[in-house]
Amino acid sequence: MLNLIFLGPPGAGKGTQAQRLASRFGIPQLSTGDVLRRAVAEKSALGMKAKALMESGKLVPDEVVNGIVDEALARPEALRGFLLDGFPRTVAQATALDEMLARRGRRIDYVLNLEVPAEVLVDRLSGRLSCPNDGSVYHLRTNPPKRPGLCDKDGAKLVQRPDDQPEAVRRRLSEYQEKTALLTGYYKPRKVLRTIDGVGTPEEVEGRIASALRDHPTGGPAQP
Length: 224
Hints:
The protein has a single domain, classed as Rossmann fold. The protein is built from nine helices and seven strands; from the N terminus they run βαβαααβαβαββααβα. It has helices spanning 14-25, 32-41, 45-55, 62-73, 91-103, 118-126, 166-178, 182-187, 202-212, and strands at residues 2-7, 29-31, 81-85, 110-115, 128-130, 137-139, 193-197.
C-alpha cells in the first residue's frame, strides 16, 4: 500500500508525473477536479451541492471538498493506496485529511514536492497554446504545432488561456506560495516530505521520484 500526496506550483508537471506514478504502482490518481466532476456526475448529495455552488460562480468550500475527497478515499480502488493531486491545498485541508485517514487506520507515506524555479514556470505556462475544440496543448518552444498558430489535428486556431499569460502566471505562483507552499512546513517534521527537482524531461523527473521512493517497500523494486 502506498499513500501519496503531490505538491508543486502550477506548471511543475504534477499531472504528468501523477499519471506515471499511478500507473506504475496501480493506485488511483485522485485529482481534485476529477473527484469533483465524478461526484457531480454521480449526483451524490455533496456533488449536487458543489454543482450548485460552481454554477453560481462561487467557490466550493472546504467542508464540501473535504467530504467529496473522503468519499473518494472510501472507494474500493483506493483501499490499496492512492495519489492525491491538488489536495490538500491548505493546512486546514491537510488537517482534515489526517482525520479522514486516522478513522481508517491509515496515514500518508510520502509527500512529493516538485520544485521548479519561478522563471522556468512562467516560461512553461506562458508559452502554452491550446486547441479550443479538443483541448490539445502545445508549447511555442518545446512542442510547437506543425503550422504556426493552428492545431495539428483539426486546424483550429490555437488560443492562450488568460491564466497562462505571464502576469497571470506570476499571480498564480504568488497565491501558491501564500497558501499551498505552507504545506511543506506542515509535513516536513513527519519525515515524509521528499523534494524533487522538477527541471528536466518527464523521464528524468520520473527517475528522481522513483529514487526518492526506493526506501518504501512498495517503491523499492521500481525502476526509473
